[in-house]
Specification:
Largest sheet: 5 strands, antiparallel
Strand content: 35-45%
Helix content: 10-25%
Number of helices: 1
Number of domains: 1
Structural class: mainly beta
Shape: globular
Strand order of the largest sheet: 3-2-1-5-4
Number of strands: 5
Oligomer: single chain
Order of helices and strands: EEEHEE
């Protein structure tokens, strides 16, 4: 089983009109993306998946809101 990590971005350059959640397998990006107009919708989706929020680090890219495991 591979560790999946979802990272939520605040209006990234490739989708500037949305909040975006992207799934990574450890440190490799996948094609799994969830797009929403608001942050709460993405958070609800992460909770529905049974995931736990990890708050962003000061060293993270400014577009990163949080990560979910």
């Amino acid at each position: 089983m591979t560790l999946s990590i979802w990272t939520i971005y605040d209006h990234p350059k490739d989708l500037p009109d949305f909040f975006v959640a992207r799934r990574f397998e450890i440190d490799k990006p996948t094609e799994d993306v969830i797009v929403a107009g608001d942050l709460d919708t993405l958070r609800d989706r992460m909770v529905d998946k049974g995931l736990t929020r990890i708050y962003r680090s000061e060293d993270d890219d400014p577009a990163i809101v949080e990560t979910w495991l």
